[in-house]
Design brief:
- By secondary structure, the chain is of the alpha/beta class.
- The protein has one domain (about 5-174): Glutaredoxin (3-Layer(aba) Sandwich).
- It has six helices and eight strands, in the order αβαβββαβαβαββα.
- It has helices spanning about 5-20, 25-30, 75-90, 105-115, 130-135, 165-174; strands at about 20-25, 45-50, 55, 65-70, 95-100, 125, 145, 155-160.
- The strands form two sheets. It has a six-stranded mixed β-sheet.
- Strand 7 and strand 8 (about 155-160) form a beta hairpin.
- Helix 3 (about 75-90) packs parallel to helix 6 (about 165-174).
- The N and C termini lie far apart (about 45 Å).
Length: about 170
């Protein structure tokens, strides 16, 4: 039986799949750049990765961060992950970090899933971390935030985010 908030997340995720939207802050952000009205990301969190090591988000200040909230049971999440793997391989040497935060999966499920999907970027455990969801609100999965080198949330995307949608934003922030 799914918890109430999990059922809500599933329903909202299905809605987001049907009507994907991207919200950028201001005209400059729509071109992939951040403007003065863009919000600062709260990166003062430490999460465990699937090996049990601490990963502190603030350690990635100065890099472009693609922060993706997802779940193993989420169909659109499964579709977008290979594109994020490609983006990471292409742009990590230029300062991109992809952080995949699993919304509610246990580590025992995450490890084989990450291996199967060839996720070579940090896979973090978000299960039970309401503080992180409060800092990066999402109502459905997947939810992607692109954070500029200065820590500004330059773009948010609800629903399936394809490589072709995200890559121009990443490139403009490099």
């Amino acid at each position: 039986m799914l918890k109430g908030w999990t059922r809500l997340a599933v329903a909202a995720g299905l809605f987001a799949l049907i009507t994907p939207t991207g919200r950028a802050h201001g005209a400059a952000a729509q071109a992939g750049l951040c403007d003065a009205r863009a919000e600062r990301a709260d990166l003062d969190f430490t999460l465990k990765d699937i090996q049990g090591k601490d990963v502190t988000l603030s350690d990635y200040r100065g890099r472009v961060i693609l922060l993706n909230f997802w779940a193993t049971w989420c169909g659109p999440c499964r579709i977008e992950i290979p594109g994020f793997v490609e983006l990471y391989k292409t742009y990590r040497s230029r300062g991109l970090i992809v952080l995949g935060v699993s919304a509610d999966d246990p580590v025992a499920t995450l490890k084989p899933f990450a291996a199967q999907m060839k996720m070579d970027y940090p896979v973090l455990v978000g299960n039970g971390r309401d503080d992180v969801q409060k800092a990066f609100p999402w109502e459905g999965l997947p939810k992607t935030f692109i954070i500029g080198r200065d820590g500004t949330i330059c773009h948010e995307h609800s629903g399936l985010a394809t490589k072709n949608q995200i890559e121009p934003i990443i490139k403009s922030l490099m």
